[in-house]
Design goal:
about 0% strand; about 110 residues; about 80% helix; mainly alpha
């Protein structure tokens, strides 16, 4: 059984490292807020990430199977909701709900 002082020291070291790792992003964030590069990426990255995610999700989709109907309809609903309301949360939740419903009922098999 380890000595009590050793256990306390180990806990304190682990707590200090954990606290430091959680505080580091906030300390690094302050100088990055004024960066032109970060401002450019913050305006362009969301669309780029969505395009990459779309390509990844639809890369193996076979248009000859009935199962491909669920993701395509969900994609159309997501785009439609976003163009209608311009609300990312509504678009994501609506598209996900449509996909889950279609994949588990109509396109199941």
């Amino acid at each position: 059984m380890p000595d009590a002082r050793y256990a306390i020291a180990a806990i304190l070291v682990a707590a200090a490292i954990t606290w430091g790792l959680r505080a580091l992003p906030f300390a690094a964030l302050t100088p990055l807020r004024a960066s032109k590069t970060v401002q450019y990426l913050s305006s362009r990255m969301p669309a780029g990430v969505m395009v990459i995610l779309l390509a990844y999700c639809l890369r193996d989709l076979s248009f000859t199977h009935a199962r491909s109907l669920a993701p395509l309809v969900a994609l159309a609903v997501t785009i439609g909701l976003h163009l209608w309301r311009r609300n990312a949360l509504l678009s994501i939740l609506g598209g996900t709900a449509v996909h889950v419903i279609l994949a588990s009922t109509v396109c199941a098999a």
